[in-house]
Amino acid sequence: MSGTTITPEFPSAVPGRLRLTRRGRIVFFGIPAMLLLAALLTLVGFLNSPAKAADEATALRATPTVTVTVQSGQSLWGIAGAAAPERDPRDVIVEIIQLNNLEGGRIVPGQQLFVPAA
Prior knowledge:
InterPro entries: LysM, LysM_dom_sf. This is LysM domain-containing protein. It comes from Arthrobacter cupressi. It is rod-shaped and about 120 Å long. It is mostly helical. Helix content is about 40%, strand content about 10%. The chain has three helices and two strands, in the order H-E-H-H-E. It folds into two domains: about 30 residues; about 55 residues, LysM domain (Membrane-bound Lytic Murein Transglycosylase D, Chain A, Roll). Helix 2 crosses helix 3.
């Protein structure tokens, strides 16, 4: 060999362009986007939730009620009309259902119901 040295040539270390696969793009962009969406939905939920029950403590008083025993042939409409004749029976029925945790608004004879007092 003649006195020349052969040195292998290596390409210079030039930073290349980052190439992401489809899965890499989903991970890189999708997960932060989902986290941002979850944070926004949580914020919107907090802003729209009815967190405040009343403006004043006096508005938090319990609804005065009376106990009524359901007779055969009675309906919620009739009970609501008798309990508060000056009010709309539909509003009174809603209160009766809420006060008694009635499923589907069904009542049976002999059942004790809490009814808002007039």
